[in-house]
Amino acid sequence: MKKLNVVLVVIACLFSTSLFAQDIIHDAEHYVLKKQHGDNWATEDEDIDAKLKKLEKKHGTKPNIIHIMWDDTGVGEVGIPEIQKLRGFETPNMNQMAEDGMNMMRMYTEPSCTPTRADAMTGRYAVRTGMHTVSFPIENSGMDAEEVTIAEVLSEAGYSTAFYGKWHLGDTESSYAHNQGFDEAFFTPYNQVPSMWVREAEANNVVTGLYPELYGEDIYDIDQSWKPIGYVWTLEGTKGGKTYEWGAPPAVPNFWDIDKECEKRTMEFVRRNAKANKPFYAAYWPTVTSFVPDARSSEKITANKNVLQEGLVKVDAFVGELLEELEELGISENTLVIVMADNGPFTHHGPRGMVETLYTGGKGDFTEGGIRVPCIATWPGTIEEGQIVGDIIHITDLYTTFARLAGATDYIPRDRIVDGVDQTSLLINGDGYSRRDYVMVYQGDNLSAGIKGRFKRDWKNAEPGLSGAEFYDLYTDPREDNPEMIQQFHTKSMFKRQKERHLLWIEKYPNRPDATPGIPLQGIENVRPETEKLYHAPFNMDDLPFDLKEVMDHELPFVDE
Amino acid sequence: MKKLNVVLVVIACLFSTSLFAQDIIHDAEHYVLKKQHGDNWATEDEDIDAKLKKLEKKHGTKPNIIHIMWDDTGVGEVGIPEIQKLRGFETPNMNQMAEDGMNMMRMYTEPSCTPTRADAMTGRYAVRTGMHTVSFPIENSGMDAEEVTIAEVLSEAGYSTAFYGKWHLGDTESSYAHNQGFDEAFFTPYNQVPSMWVREAEANNVVTGLYPELYGEDIYDIDQSWKPIGYVWTLEGTKGGKTYEWGAPPAVPNFWDIDKECEKRTMEFVRRNAKANKPFYAAYWPTVTSFVPDARSSEKITANKNVLQEGLVKVDAFVGELLEELEELGISENTLVIVMADNGPFTHHGPRGMVETLYTGGKGDFTEGGIRVPCIATWPGTIEEGQIVGDIIHITDLYTTFARLAGATDYIPRDRIVDGVDQTSLLINGDGYSRRDYVMVYQGDNLSAGIKGRFKRDWKNAEPGLSGAEFYDLYTDPREDNPEMIQQFHTKSMFKRQKERHLLWIEKYPNRPDATPGIPLQGIENVRPETEKLYHAPFNMDDLPFDLKEVMDHELPFVDE
């Protein structure tokens, strides 16, 4: 399978130059819509191009893009102050963004962190890039070097690009953010799980066994080879430059320092580029919603008091400062700001207070609670204020839309499926102008559900042979509490065809089966000795009858983690 | 028990004149708060009195009050346009009310129709008035004549009072709305259940056996005595005047005519009193959320299309017309308008589309989904605009608050517990000014849960002897999905005392055990022969060894329906 992939990529690359002038290859379902609306879209696009040209003339550059994305938050928790009243906390700045811009009520993501982040970076469903499963230290794999990130696309169009915060796309050197196209990066290769690997996490009942001092002695604990001692917390680097570890885990105060540093760097990056009148793309993906309360906070800032809500209020404060800075720099009207979450609340085994709000399910689930997130966009003068939009938009759409805004559409690769569709019309024309009415919902590499407008079909629990109570009308039953059968049979064959088209396309443009394997955490200038030991983990090659490279090069059919 | 009640009422009445100058007797919990906040409240009240006096001087009358209350709608379904986007319908006029006034995020009702309506009318928990259980045709009982309704209280202060719509407080003559203090009434003694008793309901799978033509012949169906043939749909009358049946069931078109007629009469009543410069109280409680779609509508008016949402949009249209009329009559700034639902969504055995939104549970449940409803209040110039308030307010509070606004507090009886506390300060001063942090949640006459601020205790499912996972922090877990124990033990003794105080007060001021029994549907001038037959149902007294009166006069201990 792996070798076949390589061959396909090579063949595709040979054709890529001539393919460049072609249309982007979208998921099959796109063409069903295009057939019906392509003419309208073309007309809209002419107006949009004129508008963007006018804007560029006014500001002297293409628009700036700031993408802030945090963890594990359900629809309604941000941007709907009525619901925040019920939860005992408030994010006034992001709520104000909703009033000043567009509150997207149907932004879909993948059901967990790594997949959603891969989607945002590549414009492709995580199942296509092999990044479909949440990574943990030590992962020994990462996003493939051949993936073309939004940073690479925008760089081609002359954008400055920066990444700050939770990257979570692997620990191989080629997957580092600054090796994936960012001019500058300050990022955590992993998630916030290490925030549990400290004594302070005990109170939250989540402390687990990383360091010997977190457990008493256990005489039966005889394999020391696999423990992730030596993992790094934060790395930094610049495009083509060297990689450095920043700080060193584990220590709770460190954790909060990461976001503080990210905020400082984001602000500095924005200022620097604004002054140079250079268009920029900044991704600040805070790590702030941890498992462990901020030990340095002397008092709680919300009546809710749980880690997510305390964290959201901190993110919100930064958003307020950032928007003010854009104003002062005079670039507000040339900057698209998007704030959003990466997936639903961490309801299964997450910290206290991570609960369902409007939707059923949370992180990891294929129900709406897992894959629908708060998302607000502002762009004063271009996005009309006070909009609440019911259109479907998908995280991958940001990729294609950002590229369009930057005049960089041509740099989107044409040798693979790019799921993201251009949603510039939605941003500019508002409610009802989405170019998408479908989402394919994956859990890992399993196709669990299909969405088409108000309708949803559960394939995961479908009884073979019988179409049972596996259909939902999301207006009638947004919480998916009452699966229907006879009421929805008119959608059955539509979903069947939707799935068939989707699978046919995968046959034509195969998925990467998994994240690309590799030695973890290499290429760090100030590498610690305990990190270097990981290059040989989980075993010393010389003493074993198989070697690390041999294991990594095999795509074992039963390995799914 | 019944006799004891009568004695107590008599004793209480003897004292009532001298008690009149005394404070209202509230639930025990009130005094715990009063002890802590009484001085502040007194200061606030002086300012409020001054403000109300000034307002009266300006307008020449006390303020008008319009109370619109419909069925079975969860928090968020009205007044939060973001959530309506997710449901595929819109109530623009009521959403505008939220922007122009106060959106109450914590209005508590009883968990079902009859109890909530009794609460609103009497200012007392339904368990105290015996009106704790939903009535159905034929009920043979109704709200006791000794209860003092808000109509009676406001009448004493010179208000014109009118009731239009779903009364649902019994079918005894003394319980009719115009016999309970309203100057004029046009009302359904029952709920919308008869809307199922027509052939058209078959499509909704809810048609049940009222009329022989709705079933084929059943040779085993040998008791014809108990079927409610002859029930009435709508009655009308004026205070001290005669009662007439309006229209005649069953017929689907009739059903929608009721609301149309209510709307016409409400508008006419408002106009008439505005022109006479007489303060008025109008209760319009639409019947619109039926089990059966409006057969006359040629097309749906919502993408959602289910009966509740279609109904809400109809109510909303009327609200829009009404607010416009108030504006034209020049009485907007002297009129408090409250729109709300009577309990949570009909999730158990209700029509399609009656589902949970934010909260768990629905009609009948003691979870928040059963007892928390959308509620919006406007009063231009007095209620500040754009307020979202997190305070607890209870349906009974409207009684006491309306009386305060009308200068009619003295007419609230002092011989019984009145649960409603004066919430004028909340209306005028806004968020944080509620005089209530508690609710006792009953299902029927069972005390199921206690609420104190953000905390809630489930008594219904409590394991005797052990305080188990029966505690909730509603900010942390608004859906009551994760009952807690150790995290909430500091609330245990507080809830214990709350309950003890509450029960002690019931011992002092006993509840009516049930709705007051009586012959149904008497005193109708244009009575139909089939209705008259009901006076002798469910059996012919002469042919049985017990008579109807004997049965009714007995409070049988095992009768709970």
Number of helices of chain A: 15
How would you describe the shape of chain A?
Answer: globular
Proportion of residues in helical segments of chain A: 25-40%
Biggest sheet details of chain A: 11 strands, mixed
Distance between the termini of chain A: 18 Å
Low-pLDDT regions of chain A: 6-20, 555-561
State mean pLDDT of chain A (0 to 100 scale). Answer: 90
Explained architecture:
- The structure is a homodimer of 561-residue chains.
- The first copy, chain A, has 561 residues and is α/β, with parallel strands linked by helices.
- Chain A contains 15 helices and 17 strands.
- The first copy, chain A, has helices at residues 2-19, 28-59, 81-87, 92-100, 113-122, 126-129, 150-156, 252-275, 307-329, 368-371, 395-405, 424-429, 492-508, 529-533, 548-553, and strands at residues 64-70, 102-108, 141-142, 160-166, 184-188, 235-238, 243-245, 280-285, 335-341, 372-378, 387-389, 393-394, 438-443, 446-452, 455-458, 471-473, 516-517.
- In chain A, the strands form 3 sheets. In chain A, strands 1, 2, 4, 5, 6, 7, 8, 9, 10, 11 and 12 form an 11-stranded mixed sheet that branches. In chain A, strands 13-14-15-16 form a 4-stranded antiparallel sheet, with helices on one face. In chain A, strands 3-17 form a two-stranded antiparallel ribbon.
- In chain A, strand 13 and strand 14 form a beta hairpin.
- The relative contact order of chain A is 0.18.
- At the A-B interface, helix 3 and strand 2 of A face helix 3 and strand 2 of B.
